[in-house]
Amino acid sequence: MIDTLTHLDRLEAESIHIMREVMADAANPVMLYSVGKDSAVMLHLARKAFYPSPPPFPLLHVDTTWKFQAMYELRDRMAAESGMELLVYQNPEAKERGINPFDHGPLHTDMWKTEGLKQALDKYGFDVAFGGARRDEEKSRAKERIFSFRTASHGWDPKRQRPELWNLYNARKAKGESIRVFPISNWTELDIWQYIARENIPIVPLYFAAPRPTVERDGLLLMVDDDRFPLLPGETPVERSIRFRTLGCYPLTGAVESEATTLSEVIQEMLLTTTSERQGRAIDKDAGDGSMEKKKQEGYF
Amino acid sequence: MTDPIYVTDALIAEDIDAYLAQHQQKSLLRFITCGSVDDGKSTLIGRLLYDSKMIFEDQLTALEADSKRVGTQGGEIDFALLVDGLAAEREQGITIDVAYRFFTTEKRKFIVADTPGHEQYTRNMVTGASTADLAVILIDARKGVLTQTRRHSFLAHLIGIKHIVLAVNKMDLVGYDKAVFERIVLSYRAFATEIGITHFTPIPISGFKGDNITALSDNTPWFKGPALIEHLENVEVAVSDDEAKPFRLPVQWVNRPNLDFRGFSGQIASGIVKPGDAVRILPSGKTTTVSRIVTQDGDLDEAVAGQSITLTLADEVDCSRGDVIAIADTPPEAADQFEATLVWMADEAMIAGRAYWLKLATQSVSATIQPPKYEINVNTLDHLAAKTLELNGIGVVELSTDKPIVFEAYGDNRTLGGFILIDKLTNATVAAGMLHFSLRRAQNVHWQATDISRDMRANLKNQRPALLWFTGLSGSGKSTIANLVEKRLHRMNLHSFLLDGDNVRHGLNRDLGFTEADRIENIRRVGEVAKLMTDAGLIVITAFISPFRVERDMVRAMLPESEFIEVFIDTPLAEAEKRDVKGLYKKARAGQLKNFTGIDSPYEAPESPEIRIDTTVMTPDQAADLIIDRLLG
Questions:
Q1: Taking every annotated instance into account, which residue ranges of this chain make up the domain Phosphoadenosine phosphosulphate reductase (chain A) (predicted)?
Q2: Which end of chain B, N or C, is less surrounded by CB atoms within 10 Å?
């Protein structure tokens, strides 16, 4: 006996089912789009789920103004190609105060991303937001529901999450409450890469190795993506062949030295590598043990 | 013995494309692990992740540090720390929720539901089991079959898991003794047979030491296999079973990008579909054929159970979310009364008679539950009498829905037989249920589609059908005003029918008395008759006290929106009692009539009736004119 569907077929079918199910109860859904590889897969799945209609919701990019230039380029291209409306939100207060990752540390993430996201959801009145979080990313996320309930103030209360049986999702909510939906909860990093390869999904070129100007700081290899990068005394950008395993704000995202210029080589490196995906991100380590869980309770995705 | 399962690095390094091609073809197995707090469940999962290289160096460094700091293995690596996620749990040292883990081998990707074994968490285990193909039941070799082993096995069997692995853990602590293992297997078999588990796979393991996990262990030369991973990789899952069943597609979403395209999207619950297949839309019963299976990558020649697809149909038939597209010659049933097993999952106990939302596949209806026929003690499996179900209670109940749902027995089709109940006020998911069968009338009666529609019948009569539902106290003037209204309609050449409470009780409802249950049935029958008459195109007028709001709403829900017109004949009790046309109030006051509305049985006035008639300021003729104006205006 053979299983007709491969594991990628099953994951795809599950994600599409979840996206369509949201349309039954959502009044005003939105897809959070961060331009990374997980977002790329989410957008691709959404287009498949509703084909030949365009996905019946807009894309929302909660911008920090500190993303890699290559991310902005792909973002605008994919929005145009998918026929979806692209909403870009930048927290006006963070903008006014000039919040940046160099001078403000954790406040940067808090204001641009956590606060920015809450403000954007409130401004447009979105009741359901698709996010690209995966359960394999971090320990506290292993217990996250696919439909994750947030209070009117966007808080996450582990005690109020609903049991999810079979493929039945309870998307009912009271006025003011909202739901974050994670259609790719059951995908792993390897699944994401395999699917990108199988489906030929466009991703930001930064995932592939190329010679780029870098400096080494606090154990992270940072890319000097524009002239806002303040060099410390004695620092000179050095050209290295690097790529990124995960993409965020360029001053907070560590690169890895690599020669992998094709998808196969990227996957090869991933499989042979010895450090986990989020390690290149400064964010998990801000508050030591359990920091992602704390962020989630505060409303970070 | 060598360990062939994880020797992949060589291929990855040498020929990544060959490796990827091979891994594109992997299948998926979902399983759960069940055991009590000390059975070493988290350790086993941590071990599976570790052995399949799902743990990276930075995580391992953190793990080693944590093991020394808070570990329970005397400084050795404590795999349990890898999987205990939430901060609160870590402090308590137990898992309190369902967590999902992922690992992959050469042949399969695995999704593991880590479900807690603690007494009060039946809910979590049922949740984790609902998506699993296989259950690993963990037993501590030192303790043997315990109460919780029975509980876990019963729940796994209840939820329909066909593959059970009995993992006898901590074999290292009993000196890898064959006799210990065999004694446990024997005692488990006796119990398993009793609850209907006919087949299980026993494996002696040590999660901590790694024996018989990825490869057979030298410590148990008497055990001929398979090792745990080997079994998980090779066990045949039920996917092909689902494909062999008749085709069913619960419609999730109607895809309508423009006037030329109308597609029906959903995930196939069972069977196979091809263009040209004759299909039936349930519950309407209309038949048509499949035109195309549309995807972004081009049309498909066939699609199978588990795939999310979009179909187009040859004819313009009514079909929307909640309907089921099924193979025409063996369609599922539609019914509105069922027997089911319920697992109660909320802190607030079940309330018999209260309406909950019931969600089954893509159908959402209102459902009421009868008091349990019995509750099942999950430890002894005894059937107990119960008035309700508390958190983690499991019982068999009868329930009825406000409109028919398309279903199959849970044992035949998990998608069309499994449901959740949702509290209408808090929106919490309060129960999971599994349908056994439908009750009485609805069984084996399919909806027959007729060619002449209700609109066509109404058009022939040049009128819009409606139901004028008069409600009010006995003696309020319902029958008098209703009669005047019908006379006016008749003069206007409109086709009407007046269903009078007393008259109906002489015929259709002569078998009913005046208990609460009989009064509800009285209204239900009248509602059904009135509905048939509106289907025939008539303007129906009913005059019943109909004291309970919930029954009036039940009738309202039977009809298309705006066709139910509630007419509240508002006469104060004192006034009605003063008139006492039939002398009934006098009898009730004298105790000769029981359950008389207004005297010893309540009247729930409508909160927002379509029409309210205050008889203290209006004559019956004025009232009739007002009603006609509202109806036709």
A1: 28-254
A2: C
